[in-house]
Amino acid sequence: MPLPDQTTSHPAPQPAGLPGGQPAVLFSKPSPVGLTLIISGRLDADGVAAVWDGAVRQAGSPGRSLTVEASGVDYCDVAGLALLAELRRRAGAASAQFQLTGLGERYRTLFEQFAPEGLPLPPGRAGKPSLPEEVGHKACILLDDIYSLIAFVGELALAVARAAANPARVRWGEAVHVAETAGANALPIIVLIGFLMGLIMAFQSAIPLKQFGAEIFVANLLGLSLLRELGPLVTAIILAGRSGSAFAAELGTMNVNEEISALKTMGLDPVRFLVVTRVLAAMAMTPLLTIFFNVAGLIGGAMVMLSLGYPLVSFVNQVKMSVTLGDLTGGLFKAMTFSLLVCAIGCQRGLCTRGGASSVGEATTSAVVSGIILIALADGVFAVVFYVMGW
Amino acid sequence: MDRPIIEVSGLTLGYGDVVVLQDVSFTVERGEVFVILGGSGCGKSTLLKHMIGLYPPMAGSVLIDGRDIVTAQGREFHAILRSFGVTYQSGALFGSLTLLENVCLPLEEFTRLPREAREAVARMKLGMVGLAGSEDKLPSELSGGMQKRAAIARAMALDPAILFLDEPQAGLDPITSAGLDELVLTLSASLGITFVIVSHELASIYAVAHRVIMLDPNTKGIIAEGAPAELRDRSDNPKVRQFFNREAQSPS
Hints:
Order of helices and strands of chain B: EEEHEEHEHHHEHEHEEHH
Strand content of chain A: 5-15%
Number of domains of chain B: 2
Radius of gyration of chain A: 36 Å
Distance between the termini of chain A: 83 Å
Oligomer: heterodimer
Number of helices of chain A: 12
Shape of chain B: globular
Number of strands of chain B: 10
CATH architecture of the largest domain in chain B: 3-Layer(aba) Sandwich
């Protein structure tokens, strides 16, 4: 390694980026064999911006030789060197002789060093793929996605089975923490949305029912729709937006930071280590949240009924008559299934992240979208099964 | 002699109530390759982040070309920012943009160069750091060392007067690392760019540094200043000699 002589003072060259000096100007004059471009002034980004278009246009048809006379250039940075290199490339493309005269020795060295003839030409942009190509590509991506989903379902089932066989191996501390952030901390928004939905539904349905003198059946409508359908559905959608996305972002960032690789090389299965705790916590919390949602919705409905002049006890009795324990447990079972789907897809999207910040964003979006789609699909399946079984 | 391009005086900095460095003062001359060194955890990177205005210091001033970055606001602050480029330890390239777009971004925002010119300049800068041919790759498709070099190209995009490099050599192979040293020397000699480098790679420090300061976590200040070879041979502080001679901590 060459050691520069540290005792001699090094001459400070013209400092870069200082104000002062005229911005570059360009003159051209025809020479006997071609064209001479005379550039003077400061060839920094501003100077190059001023002369680029003119210089490059004229260098395109220089005749037999192009001479760039740069003795008036008092400062030249890399932008200036890029201009000179481009002029040389254009002259070469027009098979003209290129000559650079008068450029300061310091800049000349830099120019020779960093702008060799072989400086890569701007490559042609890759053309847009044709329609069949694009369809095929997208289909492959979709198949890959389905494959990895199936693999993930298998891994998760295995990990959950192992956890059930050996519950002491589950990291309960982390599960409790997830239960708090994904469950307990979601209570305010669940209660608020539930209350408002109950209130709005009761109010909206009371108006037409009033025409038949049947306002009291608002209680039936509210009780059945909340317990069987809306409670689990809306709770799961809030879970997808709040926690499914959070899991995807967290696991995705861990993946980008190679934390997932670290887990794997330590011999720890990321599915067992990260996913099982999250899924179990969410499955335990979501039915509870659904109960809170139902209760808040019924309270909202009760307020409407009170304002319509019905005593509370008749609302409560009407609800009790119209819903059964089966309605409630069926709804809670649906909520639990939805939470499994939402959390599993969130974690799976996170673990599939490749690349940087933008892919974490994609994983998060995809987690919420796939989560909601899965909820809707599962809800349809439940509707058919419950109908066939007569529940 | 010109006024120094960077003057740091009475700088005290830290996080929360924890003081990392106390009353630090030094200057960097124009065109100089200035290295901040010290053991791990002595506040090198923290000092750098205060010099570039990312964090406000507890006390003191940092004059860049005569203007105080600590108190500057609005337009003046942005004018100071334009005068230097920074590369971060991990590269910090924008993951959704190709290398060419990464380097073009500052040119696009801050100059009036036509698109063709911006791309020519960006290609040249990538060529200077040895990345010709990788222009259309995304940062995630590159090795760590390549990302670091691309980050240097991006920091140089506007041809700033000062380049701050935060551990540019970490994770680079010796050949690439030596190539980087050469690049630093060339740019400093031909374009007069001032370099402020945070590093503890001894070989590279000997190769490029005109002057170094060494920080120490115990005294929370500068324990040595001067040319590296001189400090190695003549420093009367055993800690400094130990550092330059790569000796392990002696039991005391």
